[in-house]
Design brief:
The chain has six helices and two strands. By secondary structure, the chain is mostly helical. The protein has a two-stranded antiparallel sheet. The structure holds zinc ion (ZN).
Length: 110
C-alpha cells in the first residue's frame, strides 16, 4: 500500500511520485507518459484526416479543395454545390482511398 503513489524511474531507478512525468533525479521522461503520447499520435496522416473531415462536413462548399490549394475548382464546387453532390461524393471517395492529389500533385494518403 505504501507504494501506491510511488514508482521507480525507468532510467535511474529512483523512487518517484507516480503522477510525475519527469524524474526529478535524472530528468528522464517516464514510460507511462510516453505511452500516452504514442497513443495520441496514432499513425494517421493529419493532413489526410483534416481533408477527409473538411470534405465530409463542408465538401459541398469545396472546403477540402481550398485546403489542398485547388482554389479554382474549389470556387467552382462552391458555386455548383459540389457539382450537385456528385463531384463531392467522388472527391470524398478519392480522398478516403488515398487517390486525391493536392495542387502540387502529391497524393494525400492516410
Ligand atoms: Zn530518474
Amino acid at each position: 500500500m505504501e507504494h501506491q503513489y510511488e514508482k521507480y524511474c525507468h532510467n535511474c531507478g529512483a523512487i518517484i511520485d507516480k503522477q510525475t512525468d519527469l524524474c526529478p533525479k535524472c530528468g528522464a521522461r517516464q514510460a507511462n507518459f510516453q505511452n500516452a503520447q504514442t497513443n495520441v499520435n496514432i499513425n494517421v496522416n493529419q493532413r489526410w484526416l483534416i481533408t477527409v473531415l473538411l470534405c465530409g462536413f463542408l465538401g459541398v462548399f469545396g472546403a477540402h479543395r481550398f485546403y489542398t490549394n485547388h482554389i479554382l475548382s474549389g470556387i467552382l464546387q462552391l458555386i455548383t454545390c459540389g457539382g450537385l453532390g456528385i463531384w463531392w461524393i467522388i472527391d470524398l471517395i478519392l480522398i478516403i482511398i488515398g487517390q486525391f492529389k493536392d495542387k502540387e500533385g502529391n497524393y494525400i494518403k492516410m
